[in-house]
Write a structure and sequence with these properties.
The complex is a heterodimer of chains A (about 120) and B (about 900). Chain A is mainly α and about 120 residues long. Chain A has one domain: Arc Repressor Mutant, subunit A (Orthogonal Bundle), CATH 1.10.10. In chain A, strands 1-3-2 form a three-stranded antiparallel sheet. The longest helix of chain A is centred in the C-terminal third of the chain and has 31 residues. Chain A is globular and about 50 Å long. By secondary structure, chain B is of the alpha+beta class. Chain B has four domains: about 160 residues, no CATH class; about 190 residues, no CATH class; about 170 residues, no CATH class; about 200 residues, no CATH class. Chain B has a six-stranded mixed β-barrel with strand order 3-4-9-6-8-7. Classes of the chains: A mainly alpha (about 120), B alpha+beta (about 900).
Amino acid sequence: MNPGGAGGMSLLEYHVLLALASAPLHGYAIKDVVAVESGGTLTPRAGSLYRVIARLITVGYVMDTEPANSPPHPGLARKYYALTASGRAALAAEARRLKQSAALAEKRLGVARSRS
Amino acid sequence: MKAALRFLVRLFPAAFREEFGAGMIEDIERDYDQARARGPLLAMWSALTIAWDLLRSAVAEHVSPTWVRATPTLAEDQAMRWTGNEWMTDLRHAVRSLKRSPGFTAVAVGTLGLAIGANAAMFDVVNTVILNPLPYANVDRLAYIVASAPGSDMGEEFGVAAEFYVQYKEQSTLLEDVSTFNSFTATLRVNDRAERVRMSMPTNSLYSTLGAKPILGRLPVAEDEERVAVISYELWTSWFAGDSGVIGKSYEIAGDNRTIIGVMGRNFTFPNDGTLLWMSNDIKAAGITPGRFGMELVGRMKPGATPEMVARELTALSKRLPERFGGSANYARLIAQHRAVVRPLTQQMLGRVAGSLWVLLGAVGIVLVIACANVANLFMVRAEGRQRDLAVRRAIGAARGQLIRSQMAEAVVVAVLAGVIAVMLAWTGLPVLLRAAPPDVPRLADVRVDATTVLFTLGVALLSALACGLVPAVRASAPDLTRLREGGRGATRRRGWARDGLVVAQTALALVLLIGSGLLVRSFRALRQVDPGYSTENIFTFQIAPDGPTLTDGPSFARFDLEFMERLRALPGVETVGLVENLPLDETPSSSRVRTEQMANDPDAGTMMNFTFAAGDYFKAMGIDVIKGRPFETDDHALNPRNVVISKSAANLLWPGKDPIGQRLQRRGLQSWETVVGVVDDVMQNDFRTAPTPLIYFPLVGPEPRSWTIASPAYVVKTRRAETIAPEIRALVREVAPRAPMYRVYTMAGLARDSMTQLSFMLLTLGIASTLALVLGAVGLYGVLSYVVAQRTREIGVRMALGAEAGRVRRMVVVQGARVVAVGVAIGVVTALAFTRTLGSLLFGVKAVDALTFVAMSASMIAIGLLASYVPARRASKVDPIESLRGD
């Protein structure tokens, strides 16, 4: 619950941004990609997923868009979502933070192991 | 199921839905379909998780929106987020802590879900049938109008006559419109298909009175005279396959050719659900013979008029009838005594059913209260276990409100989960419930789980959360800080007044339900022992509607019937065969004035009496005793022997203290006099509750060939093979009358069962409710005592170390349980005394305050209470003193 906040983002938010970093996707595709890329630990249901998307749009990380190459199914007006420039920046920042945090963890665990 | 999930999407704020609704629905459907492809269990699980996620997200979206159109001012935004966030944090904590104790969560959610589900289903029925009963405009202004004449020989209430209708329609200032209505069965013949169906012949003003319009064609007008009819949506779709070409075609309806001019909407089923068509009819002031009573009226009152005002006006209007329409002295006397009866139409149509349904809603409501009490108890025990934790939080400065909120959050989570389960239960359980329901409940077919039900369920769930969470939460918010000092192992034992109170309430409420079902069981048994005057065993019955060029009048139909009965008798295993125009438990006979030679020579003299027609060995087949004289013989069904058989009560009424055999009577409208040749026992015509009414049996043929024509009577076949003989009779009917389909095919045993469906439905539902209440109550008591024993382990250990015997310890615990139960039983009995009256008309052969039932049910309640206390008592007596004290 930290809409628009400068600090960290939730894991699901991170994974949604990550999924959109490769190409604009529609809702269900986002969910599939998130499930795969999180190694199955995140399988958001519709309600949670769309609230995250809504929040990401509100803070300006994501926008809805026309699909780039695949023309929409006739009669099936799907919404596609894409990363904005600030979304890309936020994702990069979060990735950096995660990396540092992971590095820190590895270092500490290494120390802990060597002590015992 | 998908529809239910789709519906949950609607719980999101409109702006959110507009933007993301379509995508969410697509996702949900794909998710659910994928799960369903892998089996029903997975589908169920997937539906549950999706539903939970939707509910949670929808609530969260309302509390702290992620999607806002209009930007709120900064202050508002902050305020909203602040409380929202705190609540969300509490809810998240609650979910996490409930996940850690799955046993507690399962029991609490299951108990509440079951109870709320039962309430949702009953509410649905009540909402459709009672709160939303008749799909007509201005339902609250529609009134049912009949007559009464205190002090006359007419029944307590009776239908008015044509001249009343004319007078009311022309002169009433408080009625905007008025119409007659009725309901009867007659033959409808469409090409090769002929059946007796329910139809009605109201005046053409019915449609304007009710505000009903056809969906096809037009409504009848005065110029149509009696030559046209409008048909119901059901008839249109079933007999005519929804073909609009039916308009303008003519068919034989109730013996005459009538043209179909319109189709009514699906909802139009006046005056009852099975009515398939309405014939045109217009009553004109000219040519009315006054005094032909028996018409029921429906009127639309002016806004602001009450039934009492209308009744006063109509009574006054009726006093001028004799001077306008004439009539006999008897008629004038009756008019002088006449009082109009006006009551709301809904009350008339739903009165009996409504009472039962409210009782059932009350019963499941009681189950819910008991379930809440149980869950509240569980929460209280849970909070006790956390006393230390709460005391620490309080000590380091948590506000009381914060503690209450964090405790309430768990209750809210449990209740919302229970609500989801409840909606699913109602969804799956409702069709089962409706199948067991009596057929005469109006609009039952329209009952389904809809948005109102879901909202109701969620509302009830949240109320339940308040009910089961608040007391424990408030108590827990003031933890005993001394526990901190003593390391939490002190011997302090707070009196569990709240817990005891809950058990007392549970016991009392469960007992009320038990006594209610006990009374119904006794009524049911009493009804089964009633002697209706006929046998219901080994009797098969059916009707056919034969036609053909030779079947034209009374004698020709009689010849057909007598020959047909011979053929029936020849079937293997058939003992006796007879026929009757109005079979008991199936149809109501017509009524008319009947006078004897001893009465005045005036068509208005005489007594109102039912009459029907019988032939063959009807009385023998039905097991109706012939008390005096003889039953009908074949010769009685020829032209003009003019012999009749009458029932015992008819004989007592017409010739009290005299021998009725050889006496003569005249039915109003006939010129001839008929001779009584036999007296038979009374029969209960409509059900096993109503006392028999006087009945006169006429033969198949009257004094003239066209005096009457009995075209489709009910044949009564006495055979031990009543359950299996249908195919052979079908074959015989195909042979004798190939174009005549069989209908109203029953066994008398089946009709007897059906006549009790209302009671057996109540019995079933109330039985389930009281069983649930009993089990929940017992579990509640058991839980409380177990808890108390666990709390007192140390104390009991000390007692036993000091030499207390096991028996004494057991007794101590059981007595504590018994005291609580005894108070509950006392309160329950008093409550039941006040409430069993609501069962009123359902009871039969047993008083609402039947001592035996009260004593027996209280005794079983106490027995179960003792049993529930005994298990914890045994555990207490097995306490090992060494073990219990070692902890220190």
